[in-house]
Specification:
By secondary structure, the chain is α+β, with helices and mostly antiparallel strands. The protein has helices at about 5-10, 50-55, 105-115, 140-150, 155-160, 180-195, and strands at about 70-75, 80-90, 90-95, 95-100, 115-125, 130-140, 205-210, 215-220, 230-235, 240-245. Its EC number is 1.4.3.5.
Length: about 250
């Protein structure tokens, strides 16, 4: 007869996913994965978090991965509801981290309009490293956004104009259509508008968002969940660095 504990586990769709320990006599025994790729000490860190991030971002061990993938989290006020999504880091300078998106109809646009604070979280599994960035954000000018926009494939530039991001798409009633036809028509309309035009202007509702850091944390996984964590916080014109409990 199964114990209450076994019945409780069986009722869960997912419970304590992990991997079999290397020396386990029972291959089905699962343990949470251990972090043992590296370590991080205070002496390893650059005094400037921008330079430290660039060092980690450029690590040869990340070659073949997509290190620019990052989770952007925003929260609307006054409800405080948080939303997160995966985006791509496109720029970094001494002012902050820049991502690009639709700022007319998207959920993130509504969030930022009511609450200018945002956070970024990078996860680099090959090195078992994480970086978190928190701070207020600001829109880039159209002139600044145009520089990046011009590097995008033509289809992506057309798509930025065509997509009313996060707005609903309505089925047209034909068999099997779930709203995709409306999106494709929007694309055709924009393609017609810019037919023969090479230098497509950046939409006024689309562009860059810079997260200006007040806090940057570098996290290195360690065994037994005793991770190395270092937090940079603004200290006048410089940065204060503090080791945190894992």
């Amino acid at each position: 007869m199964a114990s209450n504990k076994d019945q409780s586990k069986a009722s869960k769709l997912i419970f304590a996913p992990g991997e079999a320990p290397p020396d386990s006599a029972q291959p089905t025994s699962q343990q949470a994965a251990q972090f043992n790729v590296g370590a991080l000490n205070r002496d390893d860190l650059d005094a400037d978090p921008f330079q430290q991030f660039h060092k980690w971002f450029s690590d040869p061990a990340l070659k073949g991965t997509v290190p620019e993938t990052v989770t952007l989290s925003t929260a609307e006020l006054p409800s405080g509801k948080v939303s997160s999504r995966m985006v791509y880091l496109k720029e970094l300078d001494d002012r902050g981290w820049v991502i690009y998106s639709n700022w007319g109809t998207s959920r993130k646009a509504r969030d930022v309009e009511s609450n200018p604070y945002a956070s970024l979280c990078f996860w680099w599994k090959p090195l078992e490293r994480q970086v978190r960035v928190e701070g207020p954000c600001e829109r880039l000018t159209s002139e600044e956004s145009q520089v990046y926009y011009d590097t995008r494939a033509r289809g992506s530039r057309i798509g930025a104009w065509a997509s009313q991001q996060s707005s609903g798409l309505q089925p047209n009633g034909s068999s099997g259509d779930d709203g995709r036809a409306q999106l494709e028509q929007q694309v055709r309309d924009v393609e017609k508008k810019f037919e023969g035009v090479d230098n497509i202007p950046v939409p006024d509702f689309w562009g860059g968002l810079r997260v200006k850091p007040e806090m940057v944390e570098f996290w290195q996984g360690r065994e037994s969940r005793l991770h190395d964590r270092f937090k940079y916080t603004r200290d006048g014109n410089g940065w204060e660095i503090e080791r945190l409990n894992p």
